Amino acid sequence: MDFTYSEEQQMIADSLRRFVDSEYTFAKRRKRSREGGAFERAVWCSLAELGILGLTIDADYGGFGEGPASRLVVQRELGRGLLVEPVVPCAVVAAAVLGKYGSPVQKQAWLAGIAGGEKILSVAWLEHDSRYRIEAVSTVAERSGEGYVLNGQKSLVWHAEAADALLVTARISGSKHIGLFIVPCDAANVELTGYPTMDGLRAADVNLDNAIVGKDSLVGEAADGLLALQHGLDHGIAALCAEAAGAMERLIEITAEHLQTRRQFGQPLGKFQALQHRMADMLVQKELALSMAYVAAQALDEPDARQRTRMLSAAKVIVAKAGRYVGQQAVQLHGGMGMTDELEVGDYFKRLTMFDPLFGDSDYHMARYCDAMES
Questions:
Q1: What letter does residue 209 receive in the DSSP assignment?
Q2: Which parts of the sequence belong to the Acyl-CoA oxidase/dehydrogenase middle domain (predicted)?
Q3: What ranges make up the beta strands (E) of 64-189?
Q4: Rounded to two decimals, what is the model's pTM?
Q5: How far is it, in rounded angstroms, from Cα 358 to Cα 320?
Q6: Residue 258: which of 150, 167, 330 has the closest Cα?
Q7: Which CATH fold topology does 123-225 show?
Q8: Longest dimension (CA), the chain
Q9: Fewer CB within 10 Å: N-end or C-end of the chain?
Q10: Other residues' Cβ atoms within 10 Å of the Cβ of residue 252
Q11: Is residue 158 within 8 Å of residue 228, measured between CB atoms?
């Protein structure tokens, strides 16, 4: 895979950076987070117009059919801008799931809507005791006439309040299969309880109490549920790695600017050799994270399942460690101001801290990596 930006990719990156600089300023983002909302329809439509939402969706459904390399370019810029829109759960995870496993009707109904910014899908797979294990599913889907009745609870559903529908995992009663269902958020007996997360985004717990869905809501075959979900999560992990690398890149720039302007003993802090060394260490960690983001993107085209798992889990662990280091050092170099509302360094620190638990924390991925090493 060639990670040198093509002319088209560079144009996308430049356009997205201009959009962030002009339309997605720190003040606007902070204001929305304080008001309890992490989604704005106008911003979402702008992302659709820029081609971000339909980037990897097939051209037959209004997308551009780009691959993982282009997604890395986009997510890196989104990370720099610290965007709070549901790009990863919707335009990455859900789009990947439906792109490979969805029926023609589902693709036409949802992929075209995602690409155009008209519809939002998120993924509901975590449960209270699942500990990131996708097979740990207590939610049950019972066959009823021409459809299914779903009962169960899902936790920490990312951006659920902004979604039109959720991709929900459920055990199909009378079989050993775990299916993946498209469940409209406004369907009867579907209850969402939303709350803010540490990094200014939103999540929700979802209660399904005899929620009825049609037979056409099942994604793929009954036996495809876990495969489809893991396929989507793999794409999500790669996107998050690139986003975290972009956030680290911008945070290092912010910290360097601070060290050049803040003075002590008659000279800028950046003149002190000890602080220069710490900045160098941050830069090394950022470059390591970016390299592993490339590995994660390349893994999506890896045909060997075990090798793909190793590459993605290794990238997730290393990028999480790098993000934690860069975030903590940035706060330290800003002194007590680093965690105040006046500076955006705290926002980047919180986002990089939250990168670890998303789609499986480091402990989970270390175990997953070790399992994939076994022959």
A1: E
A2: 126-207
A3: 121-124, 140-144, 147-158, 165-172, 178-184
A4: 0.94
A5: 10
A6: 330
A7: Butyryl-CoA Dehydrogenase, subunit A; domain 2 (2.40.110)
A8: 79
A9: C
A10: 19
A11: no
